[in-house]
Specification:
The protein is built from 13 helices and 2 strands, in the order H-H-H-H-H-E-H-H-H-H-H-H-H-H-E. The chain is mostly helical and 290 residues long. It has one domain. Strands 1-2 form a two-stranded antiparallel sheet. It has helices at residues 8-11, 18-27, 37-40, 45-60, 63-73, 83-91, 105-118, 123-131, 202-210, 216-224, 228-231, 242-260, 269-283; strands spanning 80-81, 288-289. The structure holds fe (ii) ion (FE2) (2 copies). One fe (ii) ion is lined by residues 108, 132-133, 258.
């Protein structure tokens, strides 16, 4: 087993978790808006930070690492609290060192959910918008940023060159391991994503937390919302089955709400809280285990 990096820079290369999401907007700008020019500039220090983040992510997210994190976190023996309490807990993620961050985690979730609600979608879709990043509480258990956020991808088979910064996979030991470096690796053709292990992060963690409580399209949106190599790039059609293809219509429908719902007017948490508390009570148990 490789020793994992331990320095502060290797644990937390990003100034804040939002830096990853800001970079997604550069890669996938909203059709009618262009990405900010200063951000496109590759001399921008924020881009270097994101590069370093992906270098670490692609180097250390191996098949074994993922299995180990699944065993560690899917026991859900860390904490038990109401969903709203978990959201407030998540909100402590906001990085004090960056005064420019206007939107904290809870606000991103409320803005995503409110945009879905404004378009008249069913209430479970709205709830999904509200919950989708709750798995980022992993950061509060001391997990490195590259094991919480970032694009996700299948492990146990060849890395697609349509994943962002594919060159960094050269340093991933799985890319030299013949069990894992073929097109299908440990999987069968079109075996369905339910049989595929994804790189570890907030998506899989929240899916496992909510899988007995939400409708299936909601669970797909939660589980695969960071799988850009598929929902934007179609790089893993060979692992998908027909059911995945049907359900990915929902994943694609969700993505613009996640990326493009930032509004300059921050939602007023106290006004929205009763509506979301009711929605949580309708679908989820009184407390959840982290
Ligand atoms: Fe997310
Ligand atoms: Fe998000």
């Amino acid at each position: 087993m490789r020793e994992l990096p331990l320095t502060e820079n290797e644990l937390n290369p990003l100034d804040s978790l939002e830096q990853w999401e800001d970079d997604l907007l550069v890669r996938y700008p909203e059709p009618e808006h262009k990405a900010k020019d200063e951000y496109r500039n590759y001399d921008n220090p924020a881009r270097d930070t994101v590069r370093e983040f992906y270098r670490l992510n692609h180097t250390y997210q191996t098949y074994d690492f993922v299995r180990q994190k699944e065993a560690e976190f899917l026991k859900f023996d860390k904490k038990e609290m109401p969903v709203w309490g978990a959201m407030e807990f998540l909100n402590t993620l906001v990085d004090d060192s960056d005064p420019d961050i206007e939107l904290d985690q809870l606000q991103h979730l409320l803005q995503t959910a409110e945009a879905i609600r404004a378009d008249g979608h069913p209430d479970w879709f709205v709830l999904t918008g509200f919950l989708h990043d709750m798995g980022k509480v992993l950061c509060l258990f001391g997990e490195p940023q590259w094991a919480v956020v970032g694009d996700t991808f299948p492990v146990g088979c060849a890395h697609s060159d349509r994943i962002v910064y594919p060159e960094f996979f050269d340093a991933n030991p799985d890319s030299k391991d013949e069990r894992y470096n073929t097109k299908y690796g440990v999987y069968e053709p079109n075996c369905g994503l339910k049989n595929v292990h994804m790189s570890w992060g907030h998506d899989e963690y929240l899916y496992q937390m909510t899988k007995n409580h939400l409708p299936e399209p909601a669970l797909y949106m939660i589980r695969y919302h960071s799988f850009y190599a598929q929902h934007r790039e179609n790089a893993y059609d060979h692992l998908m089955d027909d059911h995945d293809r049907e359900m990915f219509k929902w994943v694609k429908k969700f993505n613009p709400y996640d990326l493009y719902s930032k509004s300059p007017k921050p939602p007023v948490v106290s006004e929205l809280k009763p509506y979301y508390e009711d929605l949580i009570a309708k679908y989820l148990p009184a407390t959840i285990r982290l």
